[in-house]
From TrEMBL:
It is found in: Cytoplasm. One of its GO terms (molecular function) is LPPG:FO 2-phospho-L-lactate transferase activity. This is Putative gluconeogenesis factor. The lineage of its organism: Bacteria, Bacillati, Bacillota, Bacilli, Lactobacillales. Belongs to the gluconeogenesis factor family. It comes from Fundicoccus ignavus.
Amino acid sequence: MEENLPKSRYNVAVIGGGTGLPVILKGLKKLDANISAVITVADDGGSSGAIRDYINVVPPGDIRNCMCALSDADPTLIELFQYRFNTDDDFLAGHAIGNLLIAALKEMKGSMSEAIDFLSRFMKIRGQILPAAPEALVLNALFEDGTIAIGESKIAHHRKKIQEVIVTTTSGDEAVKASPRVVDAILEADLIVLGPGSLYTSILPNLMVKEIGEALLKTDAEVVYICNIMTQLGETENFTDSDHVEVLHQHLGACFVDTVLVNTTEVPRDYILTQPNEEYLLQVKHDFKGLRNAGCRVISSEFLSMKQGGAYHDTDRVVEELGHILNTTKLHRKNASDVNVY
């Protein structure tokens, strides 16, 4: 989508999904950079899950949210795109208008890439939105006790320690192929940002697509991981920041994360004790020695923002740091011999 990619000083690829990715994308629009958002297609819950069950389409929810984050359209149009039908609307209950538009355009255009490109022009997207794969994928979790959970939305409910996650096609084959332009976006990037987002269900589903994982090990870009502020029940209970990175390195079989952004501000105790639905558990503990042993540079700062009743990353502070990395860090050229095998 060349018309949406004006000549800028840098290329930045952001990989993830869930609620964390759009928060960072909004801020990245301020940088002198072409932005590529690589988004997970393994979501099988909520409106996205219902749509992918009935229509041959990748789950549109994360795509919709990232479009809104990168959109320069009229705020009223963005609000309409995000509007979700009320629960008493029978068949349409819970569906966002944007999800339905994405699904409809995919049928009209014949491919998700063409549908997103068309809608991106309409929504005045600054950058490009790239589903990780051209088809909906299935996330499988192998637990340490040998049992397996199938489906992204089911993994956390088991409350077991995850040994690894595997991504397959809906027919059970290995997920190999990335969507058009994804590999190029990674290989041409000056900076690659992972997260913030759920480690096992938002970030790793992208990396476990074979072509994406291979591209991350080849890229010359600086790879930055934005570590989560809170642990998550059923995923990262009792995890330190170095545990998060260790899981990433184990899954790709190499130490590929160059820099880790870590929040040092303490989350208010009252907030932790009043968490609804036990979505979060505790604040992620620090292990700076473990991060350095994994070959990572550590940037720690007050990245916490308590807003909208939750503990989030402060968009401005995080993007300021990412901009500093782009502007002042001499990006190291890497090749296969430079990547430490895990």
